[in-house]
Amino acid sequence: RRPVPKHSAAMTVHNRSESERGSVQLFMLGLGVAILLLGGISFDLWRLIGERRELAALADSAAIAATSGVDADFFRDQGISRLDPLRVDMQIGAVLDQQPPSILDGPSSPEVSLNTTGCDVAVRFQREFDFALLDFGTASNIVMSATGCASISQG
Questions:
Q1: What are the pLDDT digits (tens) for 31-47?
Q2: Of 13, 28, 37, 106, which residue is least crowded by CB atoms under 10 Å?
Q3: Mean per-residue pLDDT for 108-132?
Q4: Dihedral angle sign, alpha carbons of residues 63, 64, 68, 74
């Protein structure tokens, strides 16, 4: 058996001063608030990503449907595909009519551009995204936009 020294490190009792009492509780409280704040940020950012994808899908489907608005009379006469603005608007309206109300809640009416650079029709939607958990006065709303581009294929 080994003799135990009178003042070993394991047996030493530290007397804490009054200023150190409760520091662990304050640290845990601060950590809890930080975790809640990070959870709110991640929740709002994932909502933002989801709504942006939804808006992009709506713009893409409207642009693809708009390419169905070919001016048939002009094609018969000239043999060249050209979009009729009235038919394009009807096709986009048909796509919007088929969407559930939750998707159409918020986006502005589409901006349609014919014969833009790189595509025959471009459809652009905008939506204002309001924060849910981060809306405590410091964060302003974000305006998202998505543009769908489609071309007529001859063949």
A1: 999 998 888 888 888 98
A2: 13
A3: 84
A4: positive
Residue with tokens 């994808």: 53
| Token pair listed for 81 | 């595909």
- Per residue in 85-97, pLDDT tens? 899 999 999 998 8
Name beta bridge partners: 145: 126
Global model pTM greater than 0.85: no
Angle at 85 between CA 79 and CA 86, to 5 degrees: 110
Cα 133 to Cα 52: distance, rounded to the nearest angstrom: 18
Q: Give the Cα separation of 139 and 150 in Å (integer).
A: 35
Place of tokens 């394009």: 88
